[in-house]
Design goal:
Blueprint lengths: L2 H19 L9 H14 L9 H12 L7 E4 L17 H11 L4 H17 L9 E8 L6 H15 L3 E6 L3 H16 L27 E2 L26 E5 L3 H15 L2 E2 L6 E2 L5 E6 L25 H13 L3 E8 L5 H4 L17 E4 L6 E2 L1 H5 L1 E2 L4 E2 L5 E3 L33 H19 L7 E6 L4 H24 L4 H25 L11 H13 L1 E6 L4 H8 L5 E6 L12 E6 L5 H8 L4 E2 L8 E4 L1 H26 L4 H9 L3 H9 L5 E4 L5 E3 L2 E3 L2 H18 L3 E2 L3 E3 L2 E3 L3 E8 H10 L11 H12 L6 E7 L3 E8 L2 E5 L6 E3 L2 E3 L15 H14 L18 H10 L10 E9 L16 E7 L9 E4 L2 H8 L4
Parallel strand pairs: 2-9, 2-10, 3-5, 3-8, 4-5, 8-9, 14-20, 15-17, 15-18, 16-17, 18-20, 28-33
Antiparallel strand pairs: 1-10, 6-7, 11-19, 12-13, 21-35, 22-34, 23-32, 24-27, 25-26, 27-28, 29-30, 31-32, 33-34
Helix pairs in contact: 1-2, 1-3, 2-3, 4-6, 5-6, 6-7, 7-16, 8-9, 12-14, 12-15, 13-15, 21-22, 22-23, 24-25
Length: about 950
């Protein structure tokens, strides 16, 4: 498709979308109706019919009109706030209007409408820029990974400029390529022209083509070139006067740059002096700071960033960056700060700094926390990896391919060992110098490009990311080998000499993987389709052209890496080889295939892997993620942890909490046991509360002596508790819940703490730490809570070797092996959802269900479907147990300990068979509590550093 045909397609889609938006019954939007509207559009301009692919237009519009949007939620504090945003105030807002029109060409109408509403709400929670000062509002917007945060803050900037915010500073990442990418996007979405100081004439882009009036063109202090940051040569003659037009600054989070900006504000913009401190301040211009990836480098975590040689990078010192952002804010009389992040356990909640004279208050979002709903076509971690739904993960997509051939079993040898140095030269497994899994990933990318072309998406960008090392020299070597592989295929296919083996290999992958996966995706996720099937003959025909168009690039943090996308007339096909310097947040357009090994600290790699999420309209079934089981397991933990925190957030919204309440909650949340080991390099203590949470052992020791000793701890507990009884049935609205097992009630807490003291939890377990749980229970007993326990031995479905006590037969349970190593056995989920309600009668269960339904909302980013829940969720059950409800007594004294005897699984062939002793696994459901008791958790960095330290 030519660039003109692509432009025609965009124009027709925009017009037809407008025509269809007025249809009252959206279910009546069929291909036939779309065809009629296309005819109408072509009557407006017959030239649009040139090269128009009507099927591609229809597919795109059907996709857009099947999109529905999750609802936003927010916590806010109105202290010192004066409501101001009315429809009247928005009447002549031209920056927003032209941005909205630009977005309507690209996005479903409902998504644009949702963007309008959410940016209104966020702007309304800031202060009116025309209000006389002083005032200060600080908030946080929590999105989903790669889910359109940039659209949100661009829309917010347009509306803020319309409302008369005059200085707008965007803090954009740590590296030049991300700053440049952000500048390019704001050139298109806000400024309307290219900020290229070397251009002979102004080139209008994006919104500038929609409303070309020069009288509303904003001013800019930074530009899209590699050296376009706020540097000395760019600001020599820069001065801001109190005029009508806003100023835009897009700067890196870099100590030198922010220092220079602060100094310039004090010397060139300040118009008054603070009588108390003598500080120069700005009273005549209101400030808005947008902080992209707010939990990265803006928060004083005590972390230190290092270059590839392990040397500290002075310009990226979070303590200094945090202080400078606060000083810039403190230099303005009227100011607003909005952070954007994708992690609900953002560091911003955890590390609160004190107010100082020089820096002013902390960046903590005291005014509001706004959680963005995702549209139904968003593909996030919960979509890819599924969520824990009882005994297994549910909803995972068939797009993840496991990589096992990158290094030796112990991680020390092979093509890319875990701890390789920057001098490492990967060995040659075959003549390509690449492992078979990476060769297959390249083949999968080529097939995806060909299939997209057959679907009318030739004009769209397609990318592949290869992330295997953080060292530039090793990246260059990998790049050279991938380049040689692609060029070799290009030669064979274009010349038709020696091409048969290549075609045979590609056809085998197409038949084995793509045909079946496309059919499966149409079945399990039809709303992300349609997925038109292509014949192998059609694919084979376009392969020579597709392979000839692929370029292989190294991307390592310079601005030049991102410019080609913006300048390309038609879709680029790029294989990007990068490492940790591939700046966090950098978007690779049309990312189809990713190949990921753990390149350095786990957290950096996981954030990199995060860019695989986002929107894949019409080609999700062609996408593949090649990675290790270890990275998948960690991503599953993080997907579950995010979901847990979002559920807490929803419950707090419902009960009218403030951002400060939520910050306190997050700071003591056991999820931090998962994330702190990923994030906190400096030795730190966390003070955690387990109240209202469930903790379960999903990682267990494999050594026989540990298995035996944990079984011994269980037998001692049974002996101490005395005679139990079969678990009684519990009445439910549509029947009864039944269990095979034994229950003990009113068990003194000492028996439970003795068991936890004797039981050996695995140090690699995400949250189950026996010693910590024991200490927490003892501290709560001092508040007369957790004194009497319900202990249940819950049976499973394995008929051999049952446990028999007092004539009651309890069967062992089975749990699938999630991953295993020589010392560890991991499962996905231990508890069944109904097990937490083992002590709940009908009234308590129904009250918990009512609570669950109250906070439930359609939320596609979190796998929430459109049917109301039929059973209560865990947080609601635990809240009900601790707090009660009308007609339901509270039982904060009652903890629930659930024990399972797991059948030893079959591990990989060659493993020493285990004896028949069962694995003892447990879960604890803690009731909600008003007690503020916490227990100290020292982040075990020694274990962490041994396993995941930099390979410097």
């Amino acid at each position: 498709m030519t660039s003109q045909a692509e432009a025609n397609k965009t124009s027709v889609i925009k017009i037809v979308q407008e025509l269809l938006a007025s249809e009252a019954d959206k279910s009546a939007i069929t291909p036939a109706l779309i065809g009629q509207k296309i005819d109408l559009a072509l009557m407006i301009n017959s030239g649009w019919g040139e090269g128009l692919d009507r099927n591609a237009v229809a597919d795109e519009l059907i996709r857009r009109f099947s999109v529905w949007c999750g609802q936003d939620t927010w916590l806010k504090s109105d202290e010192g706030h004066v409501p101001w945003l009315t429809p009247e105030r928005k009447k002549d807002w031209r920056y927003w209007q032209r941005y909205r029109e630009m977005q309507e060409a690209k996005l479903p109408w409902k998504a644009v409408d949702a963007l309008d509403k959410s940016t209104d709400r966020i702007l309304g929670m800031l202060e009116d820029p025309l209000r006389e000062g002083p005032w200060d509002r600080r908030g946080l917007v929590v999105g989903h990974v790669q889910s359109g945060k940039t659209s949100s803050y661009t829309g917010l900037i347009c509306k803020a400029a319309d409302a008369k915010y005059r200085i707008i500073i965007v803090l954009a990442g740590l590296h030049n390529n991300l700053r440049t990418q952000t500048q390019i996007r704001l050139d298109e979405g806000f400024l309307g022209f290219e900020t290229n100081p070397n251009a002979e004439s102004m080139r209008l882009v994006g919104v500038g083509k929609i409303d070309q009036d020069p009288s509303i063109r904003p001013n800019y202090a930074t530009n899209r070139t590699e050296k376009g940051d706020f540097i000395a040569s760019n600001i020599r003659n820069l001065g801001v006067s109190p005029e009508k037009l806003p100023w835009l600054f897009v700067v890196k989070k870099n100590k030198t740059v922010l220092n220079r900006l602060l100094k310039w504000i004090r010397t060139h913009v300040a118009d008054a002096t603070d009588p108390e401190t003598g500080r120069k301040i700005v009273t005549h211009l209101p400030l808005l700071i947008i902080d992209d990836e707010a939990d990265h480098a803006s928060v004083d975590t005590g972390e230190q960033f290092h270059d590839e040689n392990g040397k500290p990078e002075e310009d990226y010192e979070p303590k200094a960056i945090n202080g400078l952002i606060r000083r810039i804010l403190h230099s303005f009389h009227r100011k607003a700060y909005v952070g954007y992040t994708a992690t609900p356990f953002a560091n911003i909640f955890i590390h609160e700094r004190n107010d100082t004279k020089e820096e002013g208050p902390d960046l903590f979002p005291a005014a509001f926390i706004h959680s963005l709903g995702a549209p139904s076509n968003y593909i996030g971690p919960a979509r890819v990896f599924g969520l824990n739904n009882g005994e297994q993960r549910e909803g995972a997509l068939p797009l993840v391919c496991e990589v096992k051939d990158h290094c030796s079993d112990d991680g020390t040898g092979g093509w890319m060992p875990l701890g390789h140095k920057k001098t490492h030269v990967p060995p040659h497994p075959d003549e390509t110098g690449l492992p078979a899994s990476l060769q297959e990933a390249v083949d999968a990318f080529i097939l995806a490009c060909a299939a997209r072309q057959m679907r009318g998406q030739k004009g769209e960008h397609s990318s592949m990311l290869v992330h295997v090392t953080r060292f530039n020299d090793v990246q260059r070597e990998v790049h050279a080998r991938v380049e040689a592989l692609v060029r070799g295929m290009d030669q064979r296919l274009s010349r038709k000499i020696g091409h048969e083996p290549v075609l045979t290999r590609l056809k085998a992958l197409w038949d084995r993987d793509f045909v079946s996966t496309t059919a499966e995706m149409a079945e399990c996720l039809p709303e992300a389709g349609p997925y038109p099937a292509a014949s192998w003959e059609a694919i084979a025909e376009v392969l020579p052209q597709v392979v000839s168009e692929i370029s292989v690039r190294v991307i390592n943090g310079t601005a030049g890496d991102v410019l080609d996308y913006a300048d390309a007339a038609v879709g680029l096909k790029v294989i990007a080889v990068g490492g940790d310097k591939l700046a966090r947040g950098l978007t690779l357009e049309g990312l189809c295939t990713s190949y990921f090994l753990r390149a350095s600290q786990m957290y950096d790699t996981l954030m990199q892997m995060g860019r695989w999420f986002g929107y894949r309209p019409g080609y999700l079934d062609l996408c593949r993620l090649y990675t290790t089981s270890e990275l998948v397991e960690w991503f599953e933990h993080i997907a579950d942890a995010s979901e847990e925190l979002r559920e807490e957030f929803d419950m707090m919204v419902e009960s009218g909490g403030t951002p400060r309440d939520y910050g306190l909650k997050v700071r003591s949340h056991p999820v931090l046991m998962v994330t702190s080991r990923l994030k906190m390099r400096a030795a730190k203590s966390l003070f955690l509360s387990f109240s209202g949470h469930v903790i379960e052992t999903v990682s267990m020791h494999r050594q026989q002596k540990r298995i035996d000793s944990n079984y011994g701890a269980f037998l001692d507990l049974v002996s101490a508790m005395g005679r139990g009884k079969p678990i009684p049935e519990q009445e439910r609205p549509n029947g009864r819940d039944r269990w095979n097992g034994i229950v003990w009630t009113d068990v003194p807490h000492e028996h439970v703490t003795d068991f936890l003291g004797a039981y050996s939890t695995h140090p690699g377990a995400p949250k189950a730490n026996g010693q910590l749980l024991r200490e927490f229970i003892v501290s709560m007993v001092g508040d007369k809570e957790l004194t009497k326990w319900t202990v249940a031995l819950v049976g499973g479905s394995v008929e051999e070797n049952p446990f028999i006590l007092d004539g009651v037969k309890v069967q062992r349970a089975e749990r699938a092996v999630k991953s295993s190593s020589s010392d560890r056995y991991s499962i996905g989920r231990l508890l069944s959802p109904k097990d937490e309600g083992v002590d709940m009668d009908l009234a308590a269960w129904e009250a918990a269900l009512a609570e669950t339904r109250k906070v439930w909302k359609e939320e596609p980013g979190r796998l929430k479907n459109r049917t109301e829940p039929a059973v209560p969720n865990g947080p609601a059950l635990r809240k009900m147990r601790g707090y009660g409800a009308p007609g339901v007594p509270a039982h904060p004294e009652r903890g629930v300990l659930l024990i399972y005897l797991l059948e030893p699984p079959e591990f990989d062939a060659g493993d020493k068979p285990l004896e028949s002793t069962p694995f003892v696994a447990f879960g604890i459901s803690f009731p909600g509590s008003k007690s503020g008791k916490k227990v100290e958790y020292k982040v075990n960095n020694v274990l962490w550093e041994q396993e995941y330290a930099d390979a410097a």
